Each structure stands twice: as structure tokens, then as C-alpha cells.
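Format notes (please read before filing issues)

Several people have asked whether sequences and C-alpha cells are stored in separate files. They are not. Every record keeps both together, in the order shown below: the sequence lines, then the C-alpha cell lines. Line labels are part of the format and must not be stripped during preprocessing.
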Amino acid sequence: MDALICSQPGSLELVQMPDPRAGSDAVLVRPRRVGICGTDYHIYQGKHPYLEYPRVMGHELAVEVVEAPTGSGVTPGETYVVNPYLSCGRCIACRVGKPNCCVSISVLGVHQDGGMAELLSLPAANLVSAEGLSADECASVEFLSIGAHAVRRSGVSSGDNVLVVGTGPIGLGVALFARLAGAAVAVFDRDAERASAAQSIAGAVPLPSQGDVLQSVLAFTNGDGFGVAFDATGSQAAMQGGFDLVAHGGRYVLVSVVKDSISFSDPDFHRKEMALLASRNATTADFEHVIAAIRNGEVPVAHLITHRTSLGNAVHDIPVWATQKTGLIKAIIEIA
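Then the structure lines:
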């Protein structure tokens, strides 16, 4: 089969690999759409903190089932969403219902080879039914689930005043599902084009992209700060600066992850009695929440997907999109 492999930072190749097989507990699927996300760009650029090369990337997947063992509960020929977080089911996190932060988690396209290939074998339990959704919509579920999980973890509800810093695809998902939860949502991004997209897609209010973000926040909130703030920038400086944007008694949620240490002023942290939360990956419940929202017409997927390529052309397109992101929200690979 053809597979797109990142052999080392800055190097992509279309190679031939042996076809995987179905097994007693494994389903053979054919990827139809593969979303390209910040994780894939970071892998290509050598910036991902949890990766060994070479690697077949791709974890935002819409797949068609080719072969499944009897009793697996999945139907050959049907299209499914893939939950790419393979958990052990036994560790302390799994036992308390948090497989998204399993002690020995293996993420497709990161810890093991993913879906930028013509065939893929994976556990039947990681296929999520998405009846009525198109292949494009199925491929959008995973990245939107990251935002939906962060919103659920934060406890955002009607009446909350929310700020999302960073409006790439993950930040857009946070803003969208915070608004669907009933919150008033503002966004900040140095890229005015992205902030504007968050306004049209997620119904968020963009703060001025020029000048000091803290001053913009204080002016917008009459000096209070935001009750709930999310960072989706992937920037150490932005993540540290976000502590200043949170109101007294507020919550700060770190959705993005960086290799660096994050520090903050303990007196200010205690003075505000701030809650600090990490949000990692997503659970099946988040996938199902996103699928329901798409099915109900609450997510404008057609406006999120801005670029397309093929498995072969991705060798040339991913390096361009990794650095030249004008007009880019979400790019997908179509596999015939």
C-alpha cells in the first residue's frame, strides 16, 4: 500500500509499505479523509514533544470498514469516525473513566503509525458510529472533540464570560462549543484573519489584534478579566501571559501543549483563587457530542475545510501549509 511517511524532521516521502490485516480484535479500514492538524505540522517541523521518527502521521480520520471480525459491532462498507486514542483500559486513568490521559496511551499518527495510508488496522472499539455524516464531516470530528472536551472539562455554562486565545482549528472548536454551551465568547489572535473567521464560524467577538492583549481584555471586561479563559496557542509566552487574563475566582484551561515549563506568579494565583486545568485529547462522549452537533446543523464544517490535497501531493503541500497559513483553517487529504 502507499503511505506518506515523515522519515525525519523536514522530510516527507510517499513509500510502499506492507498491507496491514484484520485480526481477532482488529478491524481493517480504508482511510477516506485525513485531516491535517497542528500536530502533523509540528511532527514535520520536529517540534512535537512525544514522537520518534520515522512516522506515518494522521489521526483525524474518516474511514471505510474493509474487513471486521464477527461480533465486532462494525459493518463493512460503512464510514466511521476514528477515536485515535488507544488506551490500556487498566491503568488508574482508565479505571476512573479518563482514557484520554491513559498512563500508556498510544495515539495514532504520534506514538504509532496513523492514517496517511491506503489501509489501516485498529481496534473495533476505536471506531465511532456517525450515521448520516459525510466523509468530510467525519474527518472533522476529532479536532472539534478536542475543543468540546476542553469546554466540558472547564464546566462552561450559560452566562459564563469566556475568552479563547488562539483561533486555529482547536481554538475555533473551543469557541464554537463554548457558545453552544451558552457562554458569551470572545477571542484573541494576532492574526486578524483567524480572529475574523472565529467571529463568522463560532459567533465569537474578536478583541483587537494589535497592541497589548491584557489591556484589550481589561477594556473589554471593565477591568474584571474573563471568568473562563482557554489557551490554544501552543506558545509558552502566551500560555504564561494568560494567567493575567483570568478574573478573580476564574478558571484557566491549557488546551495547547509545549515542550517548555510554564511558570506563574503564585501570589497572584492565590489572590484570585484561580483554578488551573489541563485538557488533553478527548473521550468517546466528546466524539458523540460533536457528531450530534454536526448532525443538528450546529457546526459549519463546509466553512472549516479550506484546503484539499491527495496522498501523493501532500508530500509537497504539507511543507507549504506548515509555514504559509494565509487563508488556511483545515486542510484534508482525500484518499480515493
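For reference, the curators noted about this record: The longest strand covers residues 26-36. The chain is about 30% helix and 25% strand.
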